[in-house]
Amino acid sequence: MNFWERITGSDMTKEFKTFESRVKKLPAEYQAAWEEINVNLWAHADFTGRNLIPILDGVLGLLEESAADGQRVQEVLGDDIKGFCSALAGEEGAKSVRDKWREQLNTTIAKKLGK
Amino acid sequence: MEDLTELLKGVLEGCVLEIINRNETYGYEITRRLNALGFTDVVEGTVYTILIRLEKNKLVEVTKRPSDMGPPRKFFAINDAGREELQKFWRKWEFVSSKINELKETES
C-alpha cells in the first residue's frame, strides 16, 4: 500500500470491486448471507475498515467452496450469523474503534493517576 | 443431539484437532465427521472459525489444493505443536470428565 492508496483508500475500493465480482457468481441465498455478514462485521471495523479485508476474503472463500459443494447456505452458517461474525472478528483479533477508545481512556486515566 | 452449542464451546477445538490428527483434511469433511458423530448442530461456519484459530496459533499446517470443482480447498495437517496441544487437551478432558462423573455418582 503506498501513500496515495492509504489516504484515498483506493486500494480498498479495488479489493471491494473484486469481492463484488466474486459475490455476483454466488447463488442468490449466498449473496443474501454475504450482505448479512457484511452488515454484522462492520461493527468490528477499525477506523478505515482495512482490518476486515482479509477476514472478508476468507469468508468469501468459505462461501464459494460451500456453494460449489452444493450446500444450502443455512447448513453452512446456521442461524446465528451475528455470533459467527463476532467469533470471526475475535479470532482475527480485529480491534474496533471502540477498543481503541477504551485503550485510550485507560492510558489517560493511568497517566493522571501518575502510574 | 441438539442444543449442545454452549456445552461444546470449549471442547470443539480439541475435537477438530483430533480429527485433523487422524488425517489431513478440510473444513467440509471435518463438519460432516462431527455431524456423523452425533453433533448435528455443528455447522461449517463454526468449524471455519476454529480452523482460523488453529492456524493463527500455528498448530496446523495449511496447504491450498485445487479441487475438481469450484475454488481451491484449504487442507489442514497437524504439526508438532498441534500434537502437543492435543495431548494437553485430552489430559484436561480426562480430568474434567472424571470429576464430573464423580460428582454425578456421589449426588445420586
Automatic annotation (TrEMBL), chain A:
Record SUPFAM superfamilies: BH3980-like (SSF158560)
Protein name per the record: DUF1048 domain-containing protein
Record InterPro entries: UCP029876 (IPR008316)
UniProtKB/TrEMBL annotation, chain B:
Pfam families: PadR
InterPro entries: Metal_resp_DNA-bind_regulator, Tscrpt_reg_PadR_N, WH-like_DNA-bd_sf, WH_DNA-bd_sf
Protein name per Swiss-Prot or TrEMBL: PadR family transcriptional regulator
Organism this protein belongs to: Paenibacillus aurantius
Domain Transcription regulator PadR N-terminal: 16-88
